[in-house]
Amino acid sequence: MTGRGTVGLGASALVAALLLGGCGTPRSGDLGPAPTAPPPSVAPTDRPEPTPTRAAAPTPPPTNRPPAPSTPASTGTRRAGPVTIELWYVRAGMLVPTRRTRPATLATSRLALTELATGPSPAEAATGMTTLLPAGIEVTRIADGVATLRVPSVGDPATRRLREAQVVWTLTQFPSVRQVRLDGAAPVDRADYADLLPPIVVTGPIPGERVSAPLVVTGTATVFEATVSVRVLDAAGREVATGFGTASCGSGCRGGYRVVVGWRPVREQKGTVEVYEVSAENGARINTMAVPVVLAPGG
């Protein structure tokens, strides 16, 4: 009995000592909490990730839009690119367009009227383009889509109307201007001067432009069966390309057209793009608009 009691007491003491030792300082270090499964947007790895010291931000829900491109830090300045404006000049008593590319400005209406008063370039003037607008004309107000200004009422009625049409068709290219109030009269828009457009209007190319094949010729027209024809001539007047297209509206209404023409490579030289209508009576070219250009090599 005594021996067995001694053994029992010794075993109990040994167990107690082991239990007390387990509460001491660990020798193997703290492994941290058990790892959890990664969020759905993160691919699992074979190696455990270290435990973060702060809670991670929640993963945003997926969207159908691609992520926005990264942008460089702002330097405090922003340089705007150039602006291209449309100018409407007078040719043979009708309105014809051209374009200018200038440094960007907030005062686009002032820029347009200044360029309109400056007049055509030498290449444009060679086609007969001119301007009837004097210098110094400015828009005094733009409100509710109406631009207000005064235009000198000098000259005969036809000249005054062409001058007004130049202003109206030039200013209404801007989204902020739908109508123009001239000299306190009721507002007018492009439709009030639509009769001053020739049967064929060419918006591209413009006089003096350097072009290469394939060339896209654009504009508006009101022609027989809506058919618009194009031919390209070299410096000697030889035909190097022809094509035709259909305007979006036929006879009796004006529609937009787009004709693409190509030609074999040529040396750089002066040329002409002619846009015309074929007469239904005898097949002759009528209502021709000739645009002098520079034909670039290649194509």
UniProtKB/TrEMBL annotation:
Quick one: where's region Disordered? 21-80
| Biased segments, Pro residues type | 58-70
Family matches, as InterPro entries: GerMN, Gmad2_Ig-like_dom
Q: Give start and end of each GerMN domain.
A: 109-191
Name assigned to this protein: GerMN domain-containing protein
Originating species: Micromonospora noduli
